[in-house]
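Internal ticket - ligand job 418, flavin-adenine dinucleotide:
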Amino acid sequence: LESCDVLIVGGGSAGIATAASLLRRRPGLDVRIVEPSEHHYYQPGWTMVGAGVFTPERTRRRTEDLIPQGAQWVRGSVAAFDPIHDRVELTDGRWIGYRMLVAAPGLKLDWGAIPGLAETLGRNNVTSNYGYETAPYTWKLVQAMQSGRAIFTQPPMPIKCAGAPQKAMYLSANLWRDHGRNDIEIEFHNAGPVLFGVKDYVPALMEYVRKYRIDLNFGSKLVAVDGPARTATFAVTNADGEVSQVRREFDFLHVCPPQTAPDFIRESPLAAESGWIEVDDATLRHKRFENVFGLGDACSAPNAKTAAAARKQAPVVAENILSLLDGQPIRAVYDGYGSCPLTVERGKIVLAEFGYGGKLLPSFPKWMLDGTKPTRLAWHLKAQALPEIYWLGMLRGREWLAGPHHIEPAPQLRPAVA
Ligand code: FAD
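stdout (structure tokens):
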């Protein structure tokens, strides 16, 4: 059996960052990354593609060029896990063994869960920033739209970058209102009960909702799309919990698809009841398999599923894996940090940064950048700095560029409480 020190499943944001963090700390470690895709995507850039700020090409690089020096790329897909015997099976029938396993395969965009959606996506004025192919179509439609009804949808939580459905809406509305296209009616249909999960950011967002004259609908879940007929059907739950079906005609529909753990994870021994990889929220170690870690969108930790979270999780996983390989107790902990730059208008962002329990974790002092208010500085961060921090910092394991992580002192070194 082919075997290695650390096997990483998934070469996305979390997988590449973990490999880089491991090899920065310990060059010479035998690290392998199983990844099927020729290309790696900077998905946070797709919001900007949908608003004509970035070209799609800016958000895509060849996987080959991103595999950290010293790591080996295994081109393929994992089909099944056998954590009892420390090995995984690939879809082509190969088996690979490991001393430590890192599972970071991202999540599944479940387009097929909404009848009629997959067939019409990218046509009939139905678009989504949740895809490399369709984000440019959003921009095309936004420019062309002169009047009629524009609908933006948000599925039940958890989803990756929970703010992305409304980011698309604000940037589109900003252009339409600036161009005096006041005949465009804008509706937001959110399956959930609130505009944003951390309440400190809601007042700033509500100002834009009013300014753009957006009709907010909560408890309204997209359940079917008929592209040629330009109709969307919603299951609407009222205050008494009764559900009724409402059909709306549209001239523009931006869909955020329902999201789940990937099938091969849900069906594996690594899955929690919820389907996500069952990890400890702080150490990111699997709750039942000692030499398995999970991070990124696929793990069960209740943080905001973002690349920003993966940026903070990767060094924690790297530290803990090296401790285990050295026979030491694990000590690095993750505080739940995630970030969602809410693009409320072209040139301004409400920069949500928070950890477990909705605790605000700003990266900047308030006088410099108050994340609960729209600021130009946060826009420059998103438009100029963050892509570079991603490619050159996070994916290369340069943690001084990517922000600090937290290591708890070993229990025996902790000062006694007076
Ligand atoms: P991914 O980066 O999705 O990578 C998963 C990888 O696993 C993929 O390369 C895939 O090919 C691979 N894989 C899948 N199945 C297998 C298998 N069977 N075997 C091996 N490999 C497999 N985050 C932010 O921080 N800020 C933002 O502003 C932001 N905006 C966003 C806007 C949009 C429209 C979207 C879609 C996302 C946004 N995100 C944002 C979220 C961010 O992109 C994700 O949270 C992040 O990419 C998660 O990293 P990951 O490695 O877990 O998953």
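Auto-summary: The pocket of flavin-adenine dinucleotide is lined by residues 9-15, 34-37, 43-44, 46-47, 77-78, 104-106, 129-130, 160-161, 164, 262, 264, 296-298, 305-308, 310, 339, 341 (CB under 6 Å). The chain has two domains: 2-107+261-334+385-402, 111-258.
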